[in-house]
# Entry
Amino acid sequence: MPELPEVEALRDFLTEHLVGHEVVRVLPVAISVLKTYDPPVGAFEGSEVTAVHRHGKFLDIEGNSGLHLVTHLARAGWLQWKDRLPDGPPKPGKGPLALRVALETGAGFDLTEAGTQKRLAVYVVRDPREIEGIARLGPDPLADGFDADRLAALLKGERRQLKGALRDQSLIAGVGNAYSDEILHAAKMSPFKLASSLTPEETRHLYEALRTTLTEAVERSRGVAAGRLKAEKRSGLRVHGRTGEPCPVCGDTVREVSFSDSSLQYCPTCQTGGKPLADRRLSRLLK
# Structure
C-alpha cells in the first residue's frame, strides 16, 4: 500500500505535471472506483489544476472550478503517468484500469488496481473534509507543529500495541503497515509494546524514529518518476517484507508475525531482547 512518503512523492510529481493544465476528461472504467455522485465526476472536466495536496494517504487535485478530485490508492492501487495517453476511450473489462484523467496536452494518468479486492477510491467534492476518511484523520507526523509532546499526548492512555496505534489514521495520518515496521525497528521497540507504557524518554526516541524514518523515505522518493516509486520504497526498507533476511543493523534474522490479512516484520535482537514474538492469538505478548 502506498503510504505517506510515496503519496507525498506523487503529490510532488503531479504538482509539476498537472498545475496550470486543464483536465479535459475524467473517464471512470470501473464503476466501483467512484465513491461520490454529486457533483458528478464529469463536473471536474474543464477545470484548470491549481494545486495538488496530500491528506494522509489521500491525493487531492484542486481545480479552479472549486472542485477537488481526490483519490485513495488503497492496498493495491497505483497511479501511472503517460506523456501521451492512448487514442480513444478505454474499454471496460477485467483489467486493472479503474479511471483515466486526460489533459489538454494529450498527457494524463491512469489509476489502476491489481487483484480482486477493489478498494481504490475516487471522489469529486467541493471540500475534501466532506470525505469521511479525511475528516477523521489525525495530525500529519511531518507537519511543523508535530513534536514529541504532541506524540506523547496522542499516546497517553492508548491501551493498544504500538504497531496498531501507529497505523491508526485517526491517531496519526499517513503511516501504514510498512513504515510502522520501519519506525519501530529504528526506535528499537517491540511492535507489541503498549503505547501507554512508554516513558518520556522512550516517547522522544519513538518520535525521533518516526520523523527520521518518514523524512528519509520522502527524500529518497522525491524526484523519482511515478512508475519507479514502488521499487524505491522496497529498496529503502530494512525489515518490512524481508522475513528471513539478515537485519542490516545487527545481522540477526528478520522474523515475522502473521495476521489474517497482513503481517509484520521485526528484528529480535534490535527490538525484543533477542526473543521471538508470540503469535497474537497466544496468551502473552512480549514487550
User: Anything to note?
Assistant: Strands lie at 23-28, 49-55, 58-63, 68-72, 77-82, 97-103, 108-113, 121-125, 255-258, 263-266. Residues 200-221 form the longest helix (22 residues). The first strand starts at residue 23 and ends at 28. The helical segments are 4-18, 132-135, 148-155, 162-167, 177-187, 200-221, 229-236, 268-271.
